């Protein structure tokens, strides 16, 4: 099998206005020019146009942080996949734990949003991950399996190729508490096994599985050295050019 090209994607969450977004990308561009992995930045909707323009001439791909499941209609405050596509968006994060925790996102809505994104020609970064209570209750694997099965319901093998899975333990997001490389590697391995069971070994081997949760310039190399970890989804550290560049440099 061809070696999987890691994807390091920044998730800016609700940070940076358009002027600040342009400035940070300007700072990142020279630092990322020799990247040997794929790089994306998932920015707030209102930054997409400016970020896309600032990325011109670089290999950074434009990403968004969510999209709605309908093509258009009476969904006040929502953004459709086609709207993102027209702005040059390549990747969209679906099912981030903050959406699941604070905005009522369920496995069913995650599935619907993922399908809409794929139909519009976007690539999906699908997030899964257990809470601390679930891990401590011994439910980690069951939770991951339930989230995977729910999110991938009705998604074909061909569509799966346009997806990246991000394993993000909720207890490690924005907490400064990183999963150990062994813990992260174990769950990414479980995710790959799930994919092999449902889509076959070849499809599973080709899939990129990221780790996310307080990944930073210091811990990235060890996490990325795990055989089933193919990149990272980076929150806090993607807001600082040198930190993000160091993580990108660690992903070979
Ligand atoms: C995230 O929100 O996807 C994330 C991994 O955040 P942080 O790196 O800040 O933990």
Unique ligands: phosphoenolpyruvate
Largest sheet strand order = 1-2-3-4-5-6-7-8
- Helix percent reads 40-55%
In terms of structural class, how would the helical and strand content be classed?
alpha/beta
The H-level CATH homologous superfamily of the domain at 7-164, spelled out, is: Aldolase class I
Would you count the extended β strands for me? 8
What order do the helices and strands follow? EHEHEHEHHEHHHEHHEHEH
Radius of gyration: 17 Å
Could you explain the architecture of this structure?
It is found in: Cytoplasm. This protein has a domain at 7-164: TIM Barrel (Alpha-Beta Barrel). Helices cover 44% and strands 15% of the residues. The chain is built from twelve helices and eight strands. It has helices at 18-32, 48-55, 81-86, 97-102, 107-119, 132-136, 140-152, 157-160, 181-199, 201-206, 220-224, 241-250; strands at residues 7-11, 38-42, 60-64, 91-94, 123-128, 163-167, 208-212, 231-234. Strands 1-2-3-4-5-6-7-8 form an eight-stranded parallel beta barrel, surrounded by five helices. Helix 11 links the parallel strand 7 (208-212) and strand 8. Bound molecules: phosphoenolpyruvate (PEP).
Strands, helices and their partners?
Layout: E1 7-11, H1 18-32, E2 38-42, H2 48-55, E3 60-64, H3 81-86, E4 91-94, H4 97-102, H5 107-119, E5 123-128, H6 132-136, H7 140-152, H8 157-160, E6 163-167, H9 181-199, H10 201-206, E7 208-212, H11 220-224, E8 231-234, H12 241-250
Parallel strand pairs: 1-2, 1-8, 2-3, 3-4, 4-5, 5-6, 6-7, 7-8
Helix pairs in contact: 1-2, 1-12, 5-7, 7-9
